[in-house]
Amino acid sequence: MAAFLTAALFAVASPLLAFDMGQSTRCVTIPNQMKVCKDVGYSEMRLPNFLGHSNLEGEVVPRSEDWRPLLQTGCHPQAQAFLCSIIAPVCLDTFIQPCRSLCAAVRDSCAPVLACQGHPWPAALNCDRFPAEEDMCLTPLAKFSHFIKDLPKPACQNCPSVEVAPAMKTVLSAFCHRDFAVAAKLHRLRHTTGEPEFQVEGRVEFIRQGALLPYDTKHLLQEWLLINLRCASALVRPGRSQLYVLTGSVQPEGHIALVHLFPWHKKDAGIALATRKWKHHRC
Known about the structure:
Layout: H1 3-11, E1 26-29, E2 44-47, H2 56-65, H3 68-72, H4 79-87, E3 97-98, H5 100-116, E4 137-138, H6 142-150, E5 161-162, H7 168-177, E6 180-188, E7 198-208, H8 217-227, H9 229-235, E8 241-250, E9 256-263, H10 269-277
Parallel strand pairs: 3-4, 5-9
Antiparallel strand pairs: 1-2, 6-7, 6-8, 8-9
Helix pairs in contact: 7-10
């Protein structure tokens, strides 16, 4: 999975400033197989793009797929718009680049995800390369800036501890000392097919809700799995599903951190007893 980052970083190795604004370009329909940008809000793109790629089938489409796993992490709500404005720029009478402020907003949220996989933010996406004036470029939307600050969000972290067949007292202690506790079934695809490798199956059951939001928690946990791939890979084998009790904390900046995890098998009486007793338990 991490190989996609190497490919994607290689794909943007050419300096963005090498693109000649005066060169001849053509407009083409964004093809159906370019799924990363198919629903970006416009139907025609300009070639060559801002990375200098002019071969739609041989360069643009396959390299666009390299970014899909990063976008699936939900690292920034405008990450798709930013990347597509570079790899599939909208076909208008003038060139529309992303503004420097949009680049910085996406970089600040998505660079830590790349770092979690051991990669830096690509030099070709250096935000200083983009226009600072915001009258003829793609700007960040204020509603997203406020929205993402209000929601708990996943982050790169050290892998949480995992305890198999815990005693009831151990589980109750984790419930008491953590901000939230949920039960969720984690699934891992056997083969990657463009879909997220890790998914949360079915409903998330709240044991201790804390600051988590019911409508957002399933998505939040899936994003955590996709950001923390090394940790997630140790939790579920390819092609398998596993029910877990997940406990964790919400950091002051709004990031969630999973702290103590319990795989829940049918024979685990300690977990079952703890979840039943929790409603009337006094910490």
